[in-house]
């Protein structure tokens, strides 16, 4: 993977400001430690950092291509999984290629089909193409948001980058956070609304969107949507289709000129990916490495609960032995886990999922010692119905985001300087706005409509949150992580599969289990879903609490937006005032303290100006 930055201005000569694009691109060196490149002209500055995965010589960027007396320049971050098919199609249309890189295929696709090119791409991508002849910029992000892209429009300047930190290096962009950003931080985070990047001056381009920008035109458009269709497949046919789609997605993502590995928790999703990957590599004489995460003394302190019914360690061993991988367990120290909250905040440019972030950051740091590319099982729960809010009645019918049901708690956190009712209205408006975008059939029953709503919310909100986390934490360690279940073909198909088929045998992800029966061990097939593991060591809670008490003592700038008295009460009572996690399945009291630590560090480090 890579990172890029750009600055377009049609009203001034910006070529003399190359130092700005250099600073912006330099802070993305973790995304691309292997090479850097720049393109400088009167109205455009482009910078690129490269993590070399395919075609080391032919894939250098920025890449330039001439066609029909026009000059096109691309900066690109991603991986295209239908490269060969598209190259062959473009060659049949008369195009010639000087490399075997997917970058040239993406650029040529744009030259041929302009903004329609995104409909031909199967992969994970964010890219920008500048037509120097016509002075027109095109930027786009992949269907599901695996790769990030942010931009800012200031006067006549269009500034964009792979990460927020690069945009903040531009002198025109401030660190102001207005009331809307504050309501995002308290009412919705670690999720964020589509388009929101918290900072007032910055917009995140949502998944499946593109922008066209020229002197006379600014257009932003959603190019892909979930479309409802009548489902007429039998259960057996559905199983066959899912097996083929998932297998194809995994197989396509094994292309690399460097070492590739898999994350293997011993859960259903990662085991399927690992099994298919190992078989494919075995056919070419290679043995797959797999990795799982554990925490120091977790076995000692673990207690069964409805959100995490089993630990991964034994299941990861069973899966590895059955499949035949070289398995490595990465054990996380709890003190380092807490310390890494700060690094994770910088990687994300925002407060995030606390130790759910920092553990992944430490984990991918170890994995990077062995490989440049990894496959991971994210997104299966969102599309196959693995989360409790799909099948538990007390979650399913919440009239808010089901992974974040405790709005009253969030209102109590908010500083008295702001209106709690206004915060509630803001969150509710974002929920209702999303409901208005759900497409369904007139013939759908009330229950079917509700499942479409849950599906849409998971794909457009919760999935994007987890994909953002995966990208930032892995790319902070220069590790490219691919997510086969985030293939838009699978997502499209499953949108129309009835819940009773997804919930085969009255088990979450029953359809996925049945589709890979016989390919994965029965112990894994029948294992009840257990989410990404977290630490249960009381030392971690103790350490995070101590840090929160220090934040209170030092009168942190976050008390502009956080109610210090309410936070003090939580630290004194030593119990969490909720019977459910405050976000997702994992974020309870230790993670709440972790979020406060991240919020404090972010506000100070980024010199945040709360308006």
TrEMBL record:
This is asparagine synthase (glutamine-hydrolyzing). The lineage of its organism: Bacteria, Bacillati, Bacillota, Bacillota incertae sedis, Caldicellulosiruptorales. Gene3D superfamilies: Glutamine Phosphoribosylpyrophosphate, subunit 1, domain 1 (3.60.20.10), HUPs (3.40.50.620). It catalyses: L-aspartate + L-glutamine + ATP + H2O = L-asparagine + L-glutamate + AMP + diphosphate + H(+). Its EC number is 6.3.5.4. NCBIfam families: asn_synth_AEB (TIGR01536). GO terms for molecular function: asparagine synthase (glutamine-hydrolyzing) activity. Residues 2-216 form the Glutamine amidotransferase type-2 domain. Belongs to the asparagine synthetase family. InterPro entries: Asn_synth_AEB, Asn_synthase, ASN_synthetase/amidase, AsnB_N, GATase_2_dom, Ntn_hydrolases_N, Rossmann-like_a/b/a_fold. It comes from Anaerocellum danielii. PANTHER family: ASPARAGINE SYNTHETASE, ASPARAGINE SYNTHETASE (GLUTAMINE-HYDROLYZING). Pathway: Amino-acid biosynthesis; L-asparagine biosynthesis; L-asparagine from L-aspartate (L-Gln route): step 1/1. Keywords: Amino-acid biosynthesis, Asparagine biosynthesis, ATP-binding, Glutamine amidotransferase, Ligase, Nucleotide-binding.
């Amino acid at each position: 993977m890579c990172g890029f930055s750009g600055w377009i201005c049609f009203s001034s000569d910006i070529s003399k400001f190359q130092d700005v694009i250099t600073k912006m691109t330099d802070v993305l060196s973790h995304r691309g430690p292997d090479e850097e490149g720049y393109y400088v002209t009167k109205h455009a500055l482009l910078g690129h950092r490269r993590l070399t995965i395919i075609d080391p010589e032919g894939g250098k960027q920025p890449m330039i291509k001439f066609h029909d007396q026009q000059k096109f320049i691309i900066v690109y971050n991603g991986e295209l999984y239908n490269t060969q098919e598209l190259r062959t199609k473009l060659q049949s249309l008369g195009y010639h290629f000087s490399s075997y890189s997917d970058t040239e295929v993406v650029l040529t696709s744009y030259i041929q089909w302009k903004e329609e090119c995104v409909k031909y791409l199967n992969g994970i991508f964010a890219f920008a193409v500048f037509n120097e002849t016509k002075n027109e910029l095109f930027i786009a992000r992949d269907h599901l948001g695996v790769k990030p892209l942010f931009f800012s429009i200031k006067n006549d300047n269009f500034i964009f980058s792979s990460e927020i930190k690069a945009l903040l290096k531009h002198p025109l962009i401030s660190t102001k956070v207005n009331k809307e950003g504050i309501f995002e931080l308290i009412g919705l985070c670690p999720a964020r609304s589509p388009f929101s990047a918290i900072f007032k001056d910055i917009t995140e381009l949502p998944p499946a969107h593109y922008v066209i920008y020229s002197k006379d035109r600014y257009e932003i458009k959603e190019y892909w949507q979930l479309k409802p269709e009548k489902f007429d497949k039998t259960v057996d046919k559905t199983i066959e289709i899912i097996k083929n789609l998932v297998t194809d997605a995994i197989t396509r993502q094994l292309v690399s000129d460097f070492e590739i590995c898999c994350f293997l928790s011993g859960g259903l999703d990662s085991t399927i990916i690992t099994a298919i990957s190992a078989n494919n590599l075995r056919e070419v004489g290679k043995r797959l490495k797999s990795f799982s995460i554990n925490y120091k003394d977790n076995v000692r302190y673990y207690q069964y609960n409805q959100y995490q019914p089993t630990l991964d360690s034994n299941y990861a061993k069973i899966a590895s032995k059955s499949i035949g991988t070289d398995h490595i367990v990465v054990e996380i120290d709890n003190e380092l886990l807490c310390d890494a909250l700060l690094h994770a905040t910088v990687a994300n440019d925002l407060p995030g999922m606390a130790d759910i972030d920092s553990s992944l950051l430490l984990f991918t740091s170890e994995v990077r010692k062995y490989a440049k590319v990894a496959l991971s099982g994210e997104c299966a729960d969102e599309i196959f119905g693995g989360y409790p809010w799909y099948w538990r009645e007390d979650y399913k019918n919440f009239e808010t985001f089901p992974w974040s049901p405790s709005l009253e708690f969030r209102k109590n956190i908010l500083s008295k300087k702001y209106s709690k009712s206004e915060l509630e209205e803001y969150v509710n408006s974002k929920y209702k706005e999303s409901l208005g975008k759900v497409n369904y059939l007139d013939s759908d029953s009330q229950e079917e409509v509700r499942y479409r709503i849950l599906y849409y919310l998971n794909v457009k909100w919760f999935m994007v949150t987890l994909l953002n986390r995966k990208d930032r934490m892995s790319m902070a360690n220069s590790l490219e992580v691919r997510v086969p279940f985030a293939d838009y073909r699978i997502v499209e198909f499953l949108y129309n599969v009835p819940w009773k088929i997804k919930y085969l045998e009255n088990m979450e992800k029953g359809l996925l289990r049945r589709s890979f029966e016989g390919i994965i061990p029965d112990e894994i097939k029948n294992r009840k879903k257990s989410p990404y593991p977290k630490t249960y060591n009381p030392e971690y809670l103790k350490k995070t609490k101590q840090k929160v008490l220090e934040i209170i003592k030092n009168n942190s700038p976050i008390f502009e937006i956080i109610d210090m008295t309410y936070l003090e009460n939580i630290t004194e009572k030593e119990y969490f005032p909720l019977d459910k996690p405050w976000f997702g399945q994992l974020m309870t009291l230790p993670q709440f303290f972790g979020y406060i630590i991240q919020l404090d560090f972010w506000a100070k480090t980024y010199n945040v100006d709360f308006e």
